[in-house]
Amino acid sequence: MTATQQAPLFNRLWALIAVFGKFGAITFGGGYAILALLEGELVDRRKWITHEELLDIVTIAESTPGPIAVNMATFVGYRLAGVVGGLVATLSLVLPAWAIIFSLSSCYLLFRDNPWIASTLAGIRIAAVVLVFRAFLKMGLKLQWSWANALLAVSAFSAVFFFSISAILVLIIALLFGVVWFGCRQRKTTPRGPQS
Fold it and tell me: What average pLDDT does range 77-93 have in this prediction?
């Protein structure tokens, strides 16, 4: 456990506000763009979670309703400070972004044809794509690759990209494949206890 995880509740809540409030205010590009930044902060710097736990959180967050970054904030906050921590982390991430979007939306119609604003948004879009690609590479390199999950990854990508199959359907099929393939193999390799 880190020093923050052993700290009094108020200190843990304040740490959650500082971390997720910062990302809620400065991150552009959505959930995947924030992944690389959250990994650097939560895993490498603060060590609140491990790389494996981050991958598990991403998997769960992708399989449940809601934005991935918000689901991650809820999970990490809950882990650090229980239900109150989950709520505080979620609100800290959402409220700054909401306030910024609310403020900008009233001005957008007035300035959307301004070339400076259009150039700024184009630059942010490019940076967001780079952040998403960086998160993809970092997470992909940390996976324990085998021929089975490599085949599954290629099949899932092909199904969505080339054949326009629903991503939800692909997730359900991948879930079933994981249960059958990895679950059955694990049961076969687990030694049985003495028979009574």
Answer: 94
